[in-house]
Write a structure and sequence with these properties.
alpha/beta; Rossmann fold; eight-stranded mixed β-sheet; 17 helices; 10 strands; globular
Length: 372
């Protein structure tokens, strides 16, 4: 069974009849990837109304990147179910430029109960660059946007709040829950980080983290990669039908009745986690910043657009990096260490699975959500 089977089996039950489940939290966390541009500009809409407009506005083949395409599909799939159709969507915000990629939407799933869903990243390297930036900067511009969004909209509301997000969005949900003002923290019932990064040492050991720890859940797949970045606890490990980076997609997480199937971290994930920690210890902040600043240059030369491209062009990419004359040796070595770690994550993925996955992506980001 998949999340779609869960929708089929429990979609007739409203949230008054069956409380919010972890599967619902994962679904809502993922829904923020959907393309809502031009749909919510005139005010709140139910999922049924938004799904109907979405269906009529975006016809034909969906050429968005994978996460957006899956979320669009989910929106259309749930729009006529009793459980989701009357959920109210509001306060949609999306920002995309060279400094920030940030999206968020509020979902009132029953009266005065609001799930705030923060958009994350997918396999595109533009999003991974922001993930690497988390190793150096706190708070990031996106962190500040997440905290400000919650404070501006819900400080004086009477809503019970749930915060969630997938991938990088899960990190935003965690940080927003930690650093929103005291009035809001009392209204936050739970925070869901869905296969997203944790936090650095200072934040992990902070009073703010301890204050929210008992209402925080970190859901990761048994082949998690991004979800093991930085410090993390309160982990719920779930089975995925795919391995390596493909396990990051929540539609590959099987559902049994009304819950995900418990699992344990794979040896691959444990090795990747150790490799990432070793990189953090081996290179200074300055060296990591040089690496991040040169990412665009390095991967443009190698024609790498996604982490999936690394598998097929691994040797070519390494050669290009070694031959680069305007990048210092330390940055070259750091880049190669990161590539080796990411390529290792594909070690259990069959070639035909990668080919199928690659065939579904577009050559470059053409999302109609992109800011011009």
């Amino acid at each position: 069974m998949s999340i779609y089977n869960y929708i089929d089996n429990y979609g007739m039950k409203t949230f008054e009849e069956m409380e919010l489940k972890r599967v619902d939290a994962v679904l809502f966390s993922f829904l923020s990837y959907a393309n809502f541009d031009g749909i919510l500009e005139n005010g709140p809409l139910t999922i049924k109304e938004a799904g109907r407009i979405h269906l009529s506005s975006f016809k034909g083949k969906d050429n968005n990147i994978i996460a957006i395409r899956e979320a669009n599909k989910l929106l259309r799939y749930i729009k006529d179910t009793n459980r989701y159709k009357n959920c109210i969507l509001s306060n949609y915000k999306y920002i995309a430029n060279n400094d920030i990629q940030f999206g968020v939407i509020a979902i009132e799933f029953k009266k005065n109960h609001v799930f705030i869903s923060f958009e994350g990243t997918d396999e595109m390297f533009s999003g991974w660059k922001e993930n690497f930036m988390l190793t150096l900067q706190f708070p990031t511009i996106s962190h500040k946007a997440a905290i400000r969004y919650v404070n501006d909209l819900y400080t004086f509301s009477n809503k019970t709040l749930y915060l969630g997000g997938h991938s990088k969005g899960g990190n935003f949900a965690l940080v927003a829950g930690m650093y929103c003002n005291g009035l809001i923290r009392r209204k936050v019932k739970h925070i869901y980080n869905i296969d997203g990064p944790g936090v650095l040492d200072a934040e992990f050991n902070s009073k703010q983290y301890q204050d929210i720890r008992n209402k925080y859940t970190h859901i990761i797949s048994d082949y998690s990669i991004v979800g093991l970045f930085f410090n993390h606890d309160n982990d719920i490990i779930v089975k995925s039908d795919n391995k390596g980076p493909l396990a990051h997609d929540i539609v590959n997480w099987p559902v049994e009745k009304d819950h995900f199937i418990p699992s344990e971290l794979s040896k691959l994930s444990l090795d990747i986690e150790k490799g990432f920690k070793d990189i953090l210890e081996k290179y200074s902040d300055e060296e990591r910043l040089d690496f991040i600043n040169n990412l665009d240059l390095l991967f443009a030369r190698a024609n790498v657009k996604t982490i999936l491209d690394l598998k097929s062009d691994y040797k070519k990419i390494i050669k290009l990096i070694y031959e680069s004359r305007d990048i210092d040796e330390t940055t070259k070595n750091l880049t190669i260490d990161c590539i080796k770690m990411l390529v290792k994550s594909f070690s259990t993925v069959k070639k035909e699975e990668i080919q199928r996955f690659l065939s579904e992506k577009v050559d470059k980001v053409k999302s109609i959500k992109s800011a011009s």
